[in-house]
Structure formats: structure tokens, C-alpha cells
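User: DUF624 domain-containing protein, Vagococcus fessus:
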Amino acid sequence: MLEKLDISQKIGVLSSVIHVLFITNLLTSVMISPFLFHLWFVSVESQTVITYFISLLTVTPALTAAVYTIWKHIVGSNNSVFKNYIKAYKNNFKQSFVIGAAQLVLASIFLYDFLYIQSRPEISKLWLIPVVIFLFFITSSYIYQLILIARFDTKSGQLLKNSLVVSIKNYKQTFINMLILLVIYIMLNAIPNSLKVLLLMSVTIYIVLLNMKPTILDLEKISEKNQIGEC
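Assistant: Predicted structure for DUF624 domain-containing protein:
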């Protein structure tokens, strides 16, 4: 009897997780639909670079709301998934938009440098090392920025500093996060587009947040001391 109850509880927990991830992914897909449209139907050319860039500006506010919603589920919130998502999207839109735009500009610069060096045989490939390092830190700190925006009330300047400090201080979790993203990237090349948007974005966020859970809980405990207001 206890075994059956335990199995039914596990099924209930799994169903709840799938429900949250599916709804969150659906809402995120709607919010980033301009980018998804470009990704699927518009080829990257000199004439479309600007519209691609503009469409990418929708991504960070949507991901921030997804992080907030999934984290609320992880810590046991019973609030509506839809309400949590819309609340986070509205409350954090301005800051997440600005931070996302800044990160996008930085990433674009270093990505261009990376591709330029690769295409020029006369340039020493050693120059790729600092470019790759900067791209690594931009990506790893971006993950922490999403979490800090979603979970704490932090000024943008302080947020950029905190995200870099936390990513370096928690280097083991940072490397695991990057490994998760690498595995997901490999999976993206092996599955059809229809499955990519079904649960993949929210699944990635869920796994990263589970990895980051001890750090986020520690930040919550010391938030007042570090002058980070909790949302």
C-alpha cells in the first residue's frame, strides 16, 4: 500500500513539473516569437542582421520570467504558472531588456572577432584564446544575471558586478552550467525544430536552477547584508 502511494506521489510530482515546464515554455515561445520566426524562416544575411538583432532583444525578458516561474515551483510556490510568469515579465521587463541588450552587443562583438580570426589564416590562432575566454565569461555571467534579475531587486550596475563575482566564486557550478548548455546545444542539432521548442528551453532552465539551488538559497539568506533586495 505504501509502495503504491509512493509511486502515485512520484507520478504526481512529475506531472506537476511537466505542467509547469510546458506552460512556461509555451509562454516563453510566445514572448520570443519574433526571434523564433527569424530562426526558422529567415536566413542570416547582411540585409537581415538588424532585424535578427532586434528579434533577439525579446529573449532576455522572456527568459527572466521563465527563471522566476520555474524557481517558484522548485521552492514550492502554489501560485498560478501564468500569473507568476506575467508578473515577473512585467516587473523585470525594463532591467532585463537593458541587460539583455548590453550582453547581446558584447557577445556580438566577441563572436564577430572569433569568426573573423578563424577566417583569416594570416592571423595567429592564439588570438582566439582571449576571445573564447571572454565569450565564456559573458555566457556564464548571463546565467547568473537572469537569476539575479528574477529573484532579487538589484540595480543594473551592481547586478553586472554581482553576476561576475558569483560566477567566479561558484566556479564549479559555473562549469556545470556551461556543460549543461553544451549538452543541450549538441541535442539541438539532433532533434527536429518541433521538439526544440516543446520543452527544451524550460527543461534547460530547470536543470540549471536545480544545479544553482544551494547558491540561490545562500544568496537569499545574505541578501540584506549584501544589499540585494529579495523579490
